[in-house]
Amino acid sequence: MLVLQAPLTPYSASIPSGPPPSAPNRTAQPLPSNPNPALGSALFALDLVPANVAPSIPIPANLLGISIELSVADEYFGSDPQTPSYQFLNYLANIRARAGVGPIVRIGGNTQDTAEYASNLDGVIRKVGGGLNAAGIPITPHLIYSDVIFQSLKTLVNLTDARIVWGVNMVNNTADFTLDMVEHLQKSVGDSLEHLLVGNEPDRYALTGNRPASYSIDTYLDEWGALTQSIINAAYADDVRQFSAPSVCCSWTTSQILDAGMRSRFSDRLKAISAIKYPQSLCQSDAVYGHAGYLNMTNIVNFAMYDVAAVSTAVEMGLPYVLAETNTASCVGVAGVSDTFTSALWAITASLELAYRNHSAVLLHNGGANVLYNVFHPPTRNTTTTAWRTAPIYYSLIVLAEALRSTSSDQSRVRNLGLNETMAAAYGVYEEETPVKLVLVNMASSNDQTQVMNVEFDLPANGNAAVSFKTLTAASVDEKANITWAGQTLSYYSDGTLIGTEDVQTLACPSQRCTLRVPAPSVVLVFLTQQAQSQASVSTSAFEPQGTNNRQLILDSNGSRGNRGGSTSKGSTRRNAGCARARARAGATLPLLAVLAPLFVSLSV
Predict the structure, then answer these.
(1) CA distance 375 to 363
(2) Where are the alpha helices (DSSP H) in 279-409?
């Protein structure tokens, strides 16, 4: 139970705004050619239970989660655990309300391996160095971080049911601070710790100068084993299965490391097998492809098969396979692509393909202010606006949460239904062998009526005579702001809440045969059964900023500095106060907050 003092003075504040998104540059990033013949020229008949296509292993509803670079974690969480960034809480609460379980939040990345823990540090994170090199590539800073970040994680866990993956420094694999750090982390998040991800991209240690050029997989395994054993001896003697690895990206493969000894030597302590993979990298060269590369099922399937052998081994071991870090392109992302609707279409389709191929978690990475692929953007300290920005790829998190939520257990199964189109896809979601949901993706580049897909499928003979469906859509794939999910939007500047009236549509299916139109570009989520349809409409509670003596001031994204409110965003005015105080809507699915007394807001956990 976390109890926070209520505001001293009521106030009203609108969502701050800022400069509009930049217009598409279709010279630099041209729209891909639409399918020819047009998608609308054929009727796509789907078999929802194909005989020769086995479904995935059971997949959790929080498959798609978030990864945050350690060096900027305080910019997302806030610098004071008692006044967390309410916008960030809202973004996570949207996922929790739809998945029925808290989202996975990983804290780590390159900077976990340059980070030292100092419990008595004044502040949250202190950085030395960093920035960008002449080519615009991020330079990894050295970090020192304090116990405050663990207190922030505790607040996050309490309020959103988040599941935490924490990155452990392996470059400094004999440091005294590691054991102290694990102890404080354990006290803060307890059973909400999914696993400790030990080491980040160890296959690049020699390249970055952190190990000699002769650094080998055998040496890595010895170091990993010694470090994890020291953590076990200090904190986990009674439950050694706490770790994930190898989290390689480039020079080695996960299957190489498993076969070289990780499986035989450390299966007792592995809680997950982890990897890092992006479709392409901008770290050494320009992007290989733009929109057309992401809106292509051949590329998506190839991406999802990056290490089939390792995934198969994880399934044999009974361990989840976690893609611990991914996004559209490593090293900042692709301008005009990573920050557009293309990223949402890609993330939804790629995540479903990864689920079909037995991944249990896919975590979208987020970095600093200059990173184009971020899921959402907190304001930077050197700007006048206090507004957060919602990136198009964020919508993939809430769509997947709804698609994968089971009506009878905590997991579903996924099938690729083999649409055999370059710019379209269809996935079935199952409870055992019963189809309960259907995800249809139309990746045609613009709102062209000739590209509207007509999809036909049959419902069970004793089932419903109608289905419900929701649509994620935009006018074109290079749209950055005007995106709607079932009639609601987060707009561009946002406090993390969906604006507008939810629009769940119904389609009659005479004789149990349904014919559904899928606009271009869009994703349509179809609820096939009565139980699934009962989950189609989602209500949430929103977190609000804490008020102050000066009603002109609201707390900004970093949780400690008051800033003047800005202009209204899409007519959305937020009222009342209280740190993370809820505006409970009817039928809210996340009853985290309750007002217990005039002077206090009590947050139940």
Answers:
(1) 11
(2) 291-294, 297-304, 308-317, 341-356, 394-404
SS3 309: helix
Q: How many CA atoms lie within 13 A of 89 on its CB side?
A: 33
* Structural class in CATH, domain 39-54+412-533: mainly beta
pLDDT in tens, 8-67: 222 334 677 888 999 999 999 999 999 999 999 999 999 999 989 999 999 999 999 999
Q: Are 80 and 488 in contact (CB under 8 A)?
A: no
Per DSSP, 74 falls in state H
Query: Which sequence spans correspond to the domains of the chain?
Result: 39-54+412-533, 60-71+103-404
Query: Tens of pLDDT along 143-175?
Result: 999 999 999 999 999 999 999 999 999 999 999
| CA angle in degrees (0–180, nearest 5) for 90-94-97 | 125
Which residues, at least 6 apart from 122, have a Cβ–Cβ distance to it below 8 Å? 146
Prediction pTM value: 0.88
Written as one letter, the residue type at 477 is V
Is residue 292 predicted with pLDDT exceeding 80?
yes
Gap between the Cα atoms of 589 and 586, Å rounded: 9
Structure letter (DSSP) for residue 504: -
In order of 153, 168, 380, the CA distances from 185 in angstroms are 9, 11, 27
pLDDT score, position 137? 65
Quick check: bond before 246 cis, omega within 30?
yes
Check if the beta carbon of residue 91 is closer than 8 Å to that of residue 549: no
**Token pair of 392, please?**
């198009």
DSSP one-letter code for 384: S
- What distance in Å separates the CA atoms of residue 361 and residue 358, rounded to the nearest whole number? 9
Q: What whole-number distance in Å separates Cα of residue 577 and Cα of residue 574? A: 9
Would 39-54+412-533 and 60-71+103-404 be classified into the same CATH topology? no
Residues 513/497, Cβ–Cβ less than 8 Å? no
> What is the fold of 60-71+103-404?
TIM Barrel (3.20.20)
